[in-house]
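Q: What residues go here?
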């Protein structure tokens, strides 16, 4: 089997070698259990269940004969993409709306608009934080008795 690599030590932590394939870290046959999918995706088991409960999975998850969830490469890739959106500060309802759009063809302009709004909000936050940093630097300079930068 191939290894899944990360930038820190060349290995994907917590992912058994038998599960790893290039890029996705998901075997083609049989899929992953929810615990294995959690290890590969970087999310908790509870978060994966929440994604399914909230209707954020790409499609209803496959289940094996005892009824346990099985995650495949397409599922993990989708979950990783949604996780990246959440890390940008996107609210869950907005992620859900984006996911709904992503399931439909021809919605690229709408998805682009969502991302452009998200970008504008991020830029506004950066500007606000830069302003705060300038104020802090000014106070530090005052207490040090040095000129304001």
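A:
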């Amino acid at each position: 089997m191939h290894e899944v690599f990360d930038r820190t030590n060349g290995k994907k932590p917590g992912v058994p070698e038998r599960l790893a394939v290039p890029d996705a870290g998901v075997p083609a046959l049989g899929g992953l259990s929810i615990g294995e999918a959690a290890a590969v995706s970087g999310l908790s088991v509870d978060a994966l269940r929440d994604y399914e409960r909230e209707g954020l999975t790409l499609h209803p998850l496959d289940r094996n004969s005892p009824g346990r969830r099985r995650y495949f490469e397409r599922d993990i890739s989708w979950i990783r993409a949604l996780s990246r959106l959440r890390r940008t500060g996107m609210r869950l309802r907005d992620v859900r709306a984006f996911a709904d759009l992503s399931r439909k063809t021809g919605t690229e302009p709408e998805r682009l608009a969502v991302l452009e709004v998200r970008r504008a909000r991020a830029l506004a936050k950066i500007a606000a934080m830069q302003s705060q940093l300038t104020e802090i630097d000014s106070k530090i300079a005052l207490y040090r008795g040095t000129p304001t930068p």
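A: Context that may help when evaluating the design: The radius of gyration is 21 Å. The chain is about 55% helix and 5% strand.
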